[in-house]
Structure formats: C-alpha cells, structure tokens
Amino acid sequence: MRNVERTRLAAGILLMVTTLLTAGCAALGDNPEDPFGSFASALSSGDASKAAEHTTDPAAAESAISDMFTHLGENAEVRVSAHDVDDESGTGLLTMSWEFGEGRGLDYETGGRAIDTDDGWRLEWSSTLLHKNLAPGTHLQYSDDKNVMTPVVDRGGAALMTWHTVGVVTLRRDALSEGSAALAPVLAGIDPSITDKSIKSAAGQQQTDVVTVATLRERDLDSVRSRLESISGVTVVEQGKLLTVDRALKSPLLGGIDKAWNDRISRGAGWSVSIVDDSGNPVDQLTSVAAQPADPLQLTLDRRLQLLAQQAVAAQGKPAVLVAMSTSTGGLLAVAQNSAADAGGAIALSGLYPPGSTFKTITTAAALSSGTATPDTVLPCPGRATIEGRTIPNEDDFDLGAVPLSTAFSRSCNTTMATLSNRLGPDALPAVAEQLGLGVDFVVPGIVTVTGAVPRADSPALRVENGIGQGSVTASPFGMAVVEASLGHGSMVLPSLIVGETTTANMTPEPLDPRVIGQLRAMMRQTVTSGTASALSDIGGLGGKTGTAEYGDSGDAHGWFTGISGDIAFASLVVGGGSSQPAVEVAGDFLRPANEG
Questions:
Q1: pLDDT digit string (tens) for 247-295?
Q2: How far is CA 99 from CA 127, 446, 564, in A?
Q3: What are the start-end ranges of the E strands in 374-416?
Q4: Could you tell me which of 140, 289, 302, 470 has the fewest CB atoms within 10 Å of its CB?
C-alpha cells in the first residue's frame, strides 16, 4: 500500500511539473518571470527595444539586435527550445528561424543564461544570445549572390547595357552655397548640363542633408577624382550600376529596363548568411547557395538602328522623336528623342498629339472598307470647302480640282478627306483605328505606352474634324508606329520590347480586308514617288503619309511623317515643327543609312 502511495505521489509531482512547463511554453512572452520566452517573443515581433529590455545590458543589446535586423531583415521566428531556471539562475536554448524569401531559410540554435536581478529575471547579455559564434566586432550578414555580369543585349546579341562601377557624387547641404560653385565646373566637363544653378535646383527637390549631384562612370570619375576630393562637403561613394555600354546610346526604352534585368538575374540568384567583421570580411559562413548562370536579357531593340535614330532626331532644334518597329514581329527596333524632347518625358511612348494628315490613312481605310470610295473614285479637291459649317482649307489653299482618291491621298487634300469622313458613320473611324491598334491599350513588359484615342463622332462637324486628324483625335508617336506596323503586318501587331515576354491588349480586333491594305500601301507609295513626301523618293520601296497638325489658337503646328520601309514601320514627329518637312527630314536621315546596312 505504501509503495502504491509513493508511486501516485511521484506521478502527481511529474504531472504538475509537466503541466507547469507546458503552460509556460504556451504563454511565451506573457510571463514576466520567463526571460527566455519574453526575449523570444520580442525578437519574433521585430521589436529590438523590447527584446533588449529583457537583458542585463539593454543599450548594448538593442544596438546589436537592431544591427542584426538591419543585415538579416525582421522575418525571424524565435522560440524557446529548452530552459532550466532555478531560484537564482538558469540556462536556456533558443531556436532562430529566418526567412529571406521563397526557398531561402536558415535555422540554428543558440542559448544563454538567465539571472535574478533587482529588476527581475533578465538574460545575461552576450552577443552569443543571437548566434553562438558571434564575437565583439562581428555581425550577421545576409547577401544576395546575383550574376550582375549578365548583360542586356539587342536582337542580334550585341551588348546594350552592362554592369559598371560608378561614383555617386554628393554634396552636404550645409556646404551647398560655396560647394556647388566649386563643383559645377569640375562636372561640367563630363556633363555640360551640370551648373551651379542645376545643383542648387536639385538640392531644392531633395529633402536630405546630403544632395546627390551626379553619377559618374569609372573612367570619368578617375579623371576628376582628385579635384572632387579637394572640394569641401563633397563625397564620392562607389557602387555598381547597370548602364549602357556607350554613353551615346540612350532611349526611353532603356529607362526602366533595370527592373526586368534585376528580375532576370534574381531568378537564379545565390545567397548566403555569414558572420563578418566591421570591414565586411567574412569570418564564418553559416550557409550558402551558389548562383546559377543567367541568360542575357535580350531586347527587340537594334543597336545600330537606335544610334541612327538618335543621330536623326539630334539634327533638329525643336523636340523631335522617332519610333521604329518591325512589321513582322511587332518588336520595337528604335525609339529616340532629342534633348529638347527629353524635357517633356518619354513623349515618344506616351505623349499625345493631334495626328493631323497622318490620320488620313485611317480615314481612307474606313472609306475603302465601307465601299464609300475606291482608289479610282474621282472626288473634288478645292482649295477650301465649307462642310457642316466648318471651313476646311488645304495647305496654302492648293486646288487640284476633281482627282482620283489616290491622288487626293498622296497630295494630302484636306477638303477631300473632310468630305469623305462626313459620309461615314459615327463609329467608322474608331472601328478602323482599333483594327490598326490606335486606341488599343497594350501592356508591354518593360515600358509604359499609350497609343491614343479616336472617340465616337456623333455630330457631322466632329466627323469632319476627326477625319483630318484634328478634332478629338489624339495619337502618340508609338501609336502611329503601331498603325504602320499593323498595315505592314496585315493585322494588328502586338508591340514588344523584351524577347520572350508576352504583350497583352484589351481587345483583338478583326484585321482589315487584305484588298484594302493593298490599296492603302499603293497610295502610301504614291505619296513618296509623286506626293507630299517626294523628298524621299530616292528610298526604294518606301511608302508613307505626311501630316501637319494644328494646335492651340495661334496657328502653330506639329510635323509628322509615318510609313513603312521594308520590315521597318516608323513614325517621326517634330513638336511645333510648323509643317511635315522636319519630320520627313528625320525619317530620311534615319532610313537612308538604315537601308545601307
């Protein structure tokens, strides 16, 4: 009987101890007398200050824990795996589980000692509470191992962008007054746009104590390094950056490509967690996964054509852009803007303007598709015509009399086109525009684009205005290039930039009748051989449409030229060019050397 009672007593004590331990584990962090649980709970919530309060040296602990969160992130789950506390002291083990992204994790066990102080139970502070191998002067460090040497290449494999060492030049705000005046002439030899005024303007736009002034390529940095070091308040920080292989190579297409490049090299990136010293040198590697080779990020861009396009727009004093696209693939071959155009942002891709007479391609397509006219239909082309109360003039009031539609198109007769558009239904122009991609919303990986808008025209007066590319019609150079590429392709193209990435559109319209496309292409060719673009008649096979689009009340006008030359569809625009002549010059300067290659 006595043995049975002893057995029952022992079992009861064991049950009570087990229950207390279980209850303690279930309430980690809620018991002020459980320093291990409270410490673990605070670390799991990412609260360095609260975790530090449960140690014997809160100041040192908070500094070390904050440093750990800085270098590893705050995605840690910390739990008490074992602890043994008596009346005055105890020991415990903590399991640290870190997450650094999908498939990236690190688990390890560490531990420490708890003591009963005047302020209650505390963990005796030591950096080994965070990792058993941490020593003074070292910290934990997570590192991505991305293959940054992966290049961005053009459609033929020629390098467009590679990883470069750059120097970020900054100036302390409290040294701005004298520092900018001394810094400007040093940097102006590399970038003439940097002036005392531009540096101070940049300072006004940055809300920091240190103003970022410029990012210099390594060769440029080396040429001015000693002079920069002599200017009070100037600091140069070297880092890596994705840049074009040639400073002369630039395009709105490349402005956001670093995100796609980073996504590419991140897919097979390696990673590691190490203990490093104050200089960042590894002392102990805790885990590592090697990076996998990354294929180059290939763009549809053609490096040679891009440089030719840049030279063509640079010759213009007013804002000028050119967009070139492959008719066979929809791939963007070149997008160039001169410095005057750059001031307005990426206008080649998303700037909206009245398309003027280039829109007559769509008006003519609508007339041909509806049976309203054929290329041989003889129509009047007076110098002026009053239609629905709106007087429409031809340029310089030229008068052709009665001519076939093909002649009216090639000579850009406003009065003829206004009369034709008045015979069409309110939805005719929007429907044909969508068949050629104008007014369609494309999601093109790597860039943001807008094509334009062709609203329904319920009033005859608006149909007249819209039919000659004025009124409520707008288009971007990108949108007009899509129109020309779709004509060359035979159906609406899906424009693209990154090879292997899929462009989507908010609609898939039926293609134009091939007979209509053939008739349009013939009229476009006639425009070059004997019409308003005859200055380019030496370019074999070229077909196009000129456009002058008035804006505002002053009579100012933009100049357009759009067309197709072989596999290249294009749109050139000179903002405020006054006539189509400057845009024709841009296209000629681009196409002549392009066709020689």
A1: 899 999 998 899 999 999 988 889 999 999 988 899 999 999 988 888 9
A2: 21, 29, 54
A3: 378-381, 384-387, 390-393, 401-404
A4: 289
**Which CATH fold topology does 21-136 show?**
Nuclear Transport Factor 2; Chain: A, (3.10.450)
Half-sphere exposure of 147 (CA within 13 A, CB side): 17
| Alpha-carbon span 405 to 396, nearest angstrom | 20
Question: How far is 10 from 29, CA to CA, in rounded Å?
Answer: 30
pLDDT at 1 over 70: no
d(CA 314, CA 74): 50
Measured at the CA of 345, the angle between CA 340 and CA 349, to 5 degrees, comes to 105
Alpha-carbon distance 48 to 597, whole Å?
Answer: 64
DSSP 3-state of 326: strand
Q: Which pLDDT band holds residue 581 (cuts at 50, 70, 90)?
A: very high
Q: Is the pLDDT score of 20 beyond 70?
A: no
Query: How far is 129 from 92, CA to CA, in rounded Å?
Result: 10
Cβ atoms of residues 349 and 505 within 8 Å: no
* Whole-number pLDDT of residue 416: 96
Model confidence pLDDT, tens digit, residues 548-566: 999 987 779 999 999 999 9
In this chain, the answer to whether the domains covering 21-136 and 303-596 adopt an identical fold is no
Q: How many other C-beta atoms are found inside a 10 Å radius of the C-beta of residue 168?
A: 16
What would you report as the CA-atom Rg of the chain, rounded to the nearest whole angstrom? Answer: 35
Write the single-letter amino acid at 130: L
CATH topology (fold) of 303-596: Beta-lactamase (3.40.710)
Percent share of the chain, pLDDT over 70 = 94
Task: Report the interhelical angle of 414-422 vs 460-467 (nearest 10°).
Answer: 140
Q: What is the pLDDT of residue 291?
A: 86
Residue 437 has pLDDT above 70, yes or no: yes
3-state secondary structure 362-376: HHHHHHHHHCCCCCC
Structure tokens at 465: 């205005």
CB distance 423 to 536 below 8 Å: no
CA-nearest of 577, 63, 539, 24 to 340 is 577
Give me the residue spans of the domains in the chain. Answer: 21-136, 152-273, 303-596
> Which conformational region is residue 205 in: left (phi greater than 0), alpha (psi within -120 to 50 degrees), or beta?
alpha
Mean of pLDDT over the chain: 91
| pLDDT in the model for residue 87 | 60
CB atoms within 10 A of CB 443: 13
DSSP tally for the chain: helices H, then strands E: 19, 25
pLDDT at 220 > cutoff 90: yes
